[in-house]
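sry for the spam today, last one i promise. struct tokens for design, 134 residues
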């Protein structure tokens, strides 16, 4: 965190970047709603699901996630982008979303996606994994 704060200061980005620390409850929901894009750049390890991406969608915020996130199987270009964990890919996807003339449609798609998300599909996949292990 100290390294990031120094970098932000050196690049004169202080007015654009806010390090909030952990957010909970309404503070977290307000941050999702206020965001233009949500990014989950899981890098080295597979993220089992990534509920935060679904939470962002529920708040109408398009997402950019890496292929290391379990939720990547369900994310379509209607609600965001799934990319390799590479800074250039992530930046390109963020810019594509920000410059999308149909961003409001994308926001509505995000809300619909979250409401219609089927947790039974995930439960069935876990059940298959557990059965295979037995």
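last one done:
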């Amino acid at each position: 965190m100290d390294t990031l704060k120094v970098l932000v200061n050196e690049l004169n980005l202080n007015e654009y970047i806010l390090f909030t620390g952990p957010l909970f409850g309404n503070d977290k929901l307000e941050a999702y709603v206020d965001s233009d894009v949500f990014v989950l750049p899981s890098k080295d390890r597979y993220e089992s699901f990534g509920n935060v991406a679904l939470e962002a969608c529920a708040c109408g915020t398009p997402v950019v996630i890496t292929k290391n996130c379990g939720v990547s199987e369900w994310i379509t270009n209607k609600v965001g982008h799934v990319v390799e964990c590479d800074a250039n890919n992530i930046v390109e996807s963020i810019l594509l979303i920000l410059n999308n003339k149909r961003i409001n449609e994308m926001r509505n798609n995000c809300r619909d996606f979250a409401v219609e998300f089927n947790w039974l599909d995930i439960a069935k996949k876990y059940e298959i994994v557990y059965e295979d292990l037995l």
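The mean pLDDT is 91. ok im logging off now
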